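Input record, target 12 of the design panel.
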């Protein structure tokens, strides 16, 4: 029987060369035209302004996507940026990332120059990505239709069924499948979106409300890496197609103690 074909569909929109929105997924052949339509609509309706250029890529994947489960999601009751940072340090240091590295990641994000991709840092905070301005972009991830419905149901229990959270969970689930990645810090670049997250394979995806003050127009991502050999890792992040086909249960607001003790068990 011939291999079943999958397609990576990616959208980017901009106005006067400035990025407005982006989205991507992996789909069956029969969904290509409806997804192209959906992404076009999404680009045209984005509240950050009218796109004057929309680029949509439809690419047949040469490898069958790896199937993986989603990270479990929970939320801490952090009330301000300082509390969010302290919680980040506690959780990330429990998997071997130094407090200094976490500090470096926050500092680099707060410089205010938003990168297109993520920083790669070793556990001491030394930057490992070859292009320090652009970072490394994770692409070629998706979710099956069934898992997407299940993720919506699961997140919906806590009022979190929206594309921002879903896409971040899908991205993080791909990232943390790779053994060398110990942890992640993410702060949105949307000035109105003040919830960030950290993630580890052990603790899952931990949401951090008020990680930044409202109105701040920059954000960023850092992946903390065991070792320093990043070539295969970068290839995985950028090119290996990965699809979520199973959803782990999510929790609502939890205590930091619960996150540190009750590991997600993956
Ligand atoms: N690969 C690597 N880095 C990326 C990617 C990608 N595909 N997309 C964005 N980044 C980097 C880039 O530096 C952005 O400025 C930064 O991450 C933040 O990206 O559960 O919306 O798309 O409520 O603004 C977190 C949701 C939302 C928390 C994160 O990130 C929650 C979000 P944004
Ligand atoms: Mg954004």
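The sequence produced for target 12 reads:
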């Amino acid at each position: 029987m011939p291999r079943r074909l999958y397609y990576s569909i990616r959208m980017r929109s901009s106005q006067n060369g400035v990025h407005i929105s982006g989205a991507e997924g992996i789909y069956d052949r029969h969904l290509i035209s409806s997804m192209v339509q959906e992404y076009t609509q999404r680009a045209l309706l984005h509240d950050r302004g009218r796109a004057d250029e929309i680029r949509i890529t439809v690419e047949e994947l040469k490898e069958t996507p790896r199937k993986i489960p989603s990270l479990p999601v929970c939320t801490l009751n952090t009330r301000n940026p300082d509390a969010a940072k302290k919680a980040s340090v506690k959780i990330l240091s429990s998997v071997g990332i130094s407090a200094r590295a976490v500090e470096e990641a926050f500092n680099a994000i707060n410089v205010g120059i938003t990168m297109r991709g993520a920083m790669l840092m070793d556990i001491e905070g030394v930057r490992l990505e070859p292009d320090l301005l652009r970072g490394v972009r994770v692409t070629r991830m998706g979710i099956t239709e069934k898992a997407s419905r299940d993720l919506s149901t699961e997140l919906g229990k806590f009022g979190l069924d929206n594309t921002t959270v879903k896409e971040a969970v899908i991205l993080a689930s791909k990232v943390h499948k790779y053994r060398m990645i110990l942890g992640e810090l993410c702060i949105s670049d949307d000035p109105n979106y003040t919830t960030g997250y950290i993630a580890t394979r052990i603790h899952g995806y931990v949401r951090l409300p008020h990680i930044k003050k409202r109105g701040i127009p920059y954000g960023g991502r850092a992946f903390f890496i065991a070792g320093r050999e990043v070539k295969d890792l970068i290839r995985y992040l950028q090119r290996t197609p990965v699809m979520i086909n199973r959803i782990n249960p999510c929790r609502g607001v939890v205590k930091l103690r619960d996150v540190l003790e009750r590991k997600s068990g993956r």
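The mean pLDDT is 95.
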